[in-house]
Every structure is written in C-alpha cells, then in structure tokens.
Amino acid sequence: MFIDDLQKCCKYVFVTGCHFLFETENKLHKSSCTEVYYQTGLQATESNMHLELLAQIISEPCFNILRTKEQLGYIVLSDVRRSNGAQGMRIIVQSNKHPQYVEKRIDSFMDSMLDHITTMSENQFKKHKKALATLRLEKPKMLTSLSTIFWEEISTQQYNFDRANVEEIVHSKIRHKLSVHVISTATNGTEDELGLNNEAEEILDTAASEKIKKIDDIMSFKISQSLYPLLKPFNEFPRKGIRSSKL
User: What architecture does CATH give domain 1-186+207-224?
Assistant: First the structure.
C-alpha cells in the first residue's frame, strides 16, 4: 500500500444534545427521503456490541410501525452506520410525506423504543442477544465473504481479525442526532401530496423550540466542528507502506 493509503480521516463530533438539520431538493422524483442519524461516539469493543444489540432490538418494530402501521413509505430501514472510527444508529425513510413530518414520527418511534426496551422481559432480551450472537458468529459460506471481512479490518487499520469472538454486549446511554432531509419539489411530489401546510408550520415551530441548527453551507459547518481523535488499532502493526514517488 502507498503511504497515502495508510493515512486516516477523522470524523466530526456531534456534541451531546445537539440537533443539526441539512436539507436538499429532489427535483426528479415525487418521493422524499429522511435520514436521522444518532451518533454514539467512537468505535470500541463494548460500544460496538451494544449498538448492534440496539439495532437488533428495534429493527422489526421499526419496519412494523413506520412502514406497516403508519405507512410512511415503501422503504424503511434502520441499521448501524460506521465511518472513519465513529458510529451511530440511523433510520432512513423514503416517503411521499414531508420529511419534517416523517422525522417527527421517527422521533416518536424512538421515544416508544425506550419504554419497549426498559419493559422488555429477561427472556425477550436473551432471545435478542442469542439472535445477534448467531448472526455474528455464523461462519462465512464463501471465501470472498471471509476476504471482505479481513479486508475491512485492513482498510480501516483496526486489524481485529477475530472481531466476532472478541466483541461483547454491553450498555450505553449517550445519544447524538443528525437529520438529513431530501425534499421532493417535483410535480405532485411531497408538497402537493401532503396538503398539510398548517401541520408543517406546526412542526417547524416545534423544531425551532428544540433549537435545531440548520446547515446551509456544508463547508462552513465542517470547519466549525470538532474532530474525533484517530481510532487506535486493535492490533498494532508497523507502518511500512510504499512511499509515493516524487516523479
């Protein structure tokens, strides 16, 4: 690998209690998209497994409530998002409804999950732990799958080649949040189909009271944010990358 390939990038820190909002327009499709990202911090053995356990617990209710019951949209996804050492939980919904309304329903769902988890029986909790353990400890069926797992460890410079057996399930309460709205402005898109101007205004008023910071300029936003430190490798290896040619 070239020395440039060994250089790491740092992830931006969302301080506890913050709520940033970025909106962009979609002029081609009638549907809009909402992504809500709850940043939990840097990756670590314990927090990794806690986050994946949370994803395991809310995955089925997220689909059943937001898609089947509330019918917000055809695409409803909840999973773990990891990048450059940082990680968090995200929920994505593609819908004909306005993103501000969708985000409000996502917030309501996440609030309900707090009660869902705290009142969960020990037997239910053990079933989720077992399901997650079974999924993670499943042996790759193809050599290419195993190669992908190992290459992920190399490319992220973590070198935890026995990660599935090393990581354990624990608990954490820190939550951070970022919202991304893709608003349809196409004919008969989000604004036309909603027909809920009063409701949208009410949501905006609520958003203002929650001190949401809207991102108008991505570069200015990035410059103003702090960065996480580089993630320490699970196993240390000497950096002997081939230096780039000066020619």
Answer: 2-Layer Sandwich (3.30)
